[in-house]
Amino acid sequence: MGAAAAGTWRLGDLTVNRLGFGAMRLTSTADGRPSDGARAIGVLRRAVELGVDHIDTASFYVSDLRSANELINSALGGPYPDNLVITTKVGPGKDANGEWTPAARPDQLRGQVEENLRQLGRDHLDVVNLRVHAADSVAERFGVLAELRGAGLIRHLGVSNVRAHQLAEAMAIAPVVCVQNRYGLGIRGDDELLAECGRLGIAFVPFFAIVGSRTAAIGAGGGTAAPGEEAEVVGEVARAHGASPAQIRLAWTLHRGPHVLAIPGTGDPDHLEANIAAGAIRLSPAELARLDGLGALAG
Predict the structure, then answer these.
(1) On the CB side of 15, how many CA atoms lie within 13 Å of its CA?
(2) pLDDT in tens, 168-206
(3) C-beta separation of 87 from 81 below 8 A
């Protein structure tokens, strides 16, 4: 069944398989070297063959040689598959000196939207997430995106890296179809926000869902088990399913609710196949209880 094995959810009027693909890892290798462009294009095309119809990207996913958006355009554009939903982000950008800044000014957002359109070769963007920095107010910048939505440049809006009050602030301005936050088995600070999104019918889209708590400990909120204990429990469940720990982390993420999507990213064809296969893993109630309990051990 490929990506369809995990079921579907709706982003506004767009239906997507809950197991998608994140494009951040397409532009460079794990050690920071620019990726092989032909290999990255092959991974994208294979992802679509496996049923992926939701790709997450951003114009700031770049290396010295290429951008993720342009790779997506080269691999899948001209024309794009009718069912393909591309979600992108705006917010981070460059200042007058060419240095990256975490939050664009409101007057810079239209330019960021237009740059995504140019790189992707599209006349509108399916979903645009406003990436928020720290505890900033979202109202003025989200209002700009709402205006661009009204002008037809954007179909749906979402928010990223937000707290509950920021989501409420955005929803008072325009409909929100997704929340994209750092979350996973080892990063449990957003359990309540995830549940609230379910009550509101909003997709919750974790990024970095595969990382363990040792990696997640820097800058992540919420109690988790010690890294060694977490790895031991995940490893035992993985062996029971003949799966990898990363696949179990993805499966657990998808089990968090029917509104939870997963967007694992990779530039490796084998890792892609493994990530997609995780959508078919069904964890037992006892296994879910063990994995869920890891979040309470240090809390």
Answers:
(1) 4
(2) 999 999 999 999 999 999 889 999 999 999 999 999 999
(3) no
Residues 6+ apart with CB under 8 A from 114: 153
Between CA 298 and CA 266 the distance in angstroms is: 31
Residue type at 113 in one-letter notation: V
CA dihedral 1, 282, 55, 73 (to 10 degrees): -40
Q: What angle do CA 67, 71, 19 make, to 5 degrees?
A: 105
Tokens describing residue 204: 């919750």
**Please, which residues have CB within 8 angstroms of residue 44's CB and are 6 or more apart in sequence?**
21, 23, 26, 55, 71, 72, 75, 76
Annotate 89-120 with DSSP letters as a single string: EES-EE-TTS-EESS--GGGHHHHHHHHHHHH
- Mean per-residue pLDDT over the chain, rounded: 91
Closest CA to 283 of 274, 292, 296: 292
Catalytic residues: 61
* The overall pTM is greater than 0.85: yes
Which among 253, 243, 171, 179 is positioned nearest to 211, based on CA atoms? 253
Contact between residue 17 and residue 48 where contact means Cβ atoms under 8 Å apart: no
CA distance 84 to 82: 6
Q: What is the pLDDT of residues 245-259, one digit of tens each?
A: 999 999 999 999 999
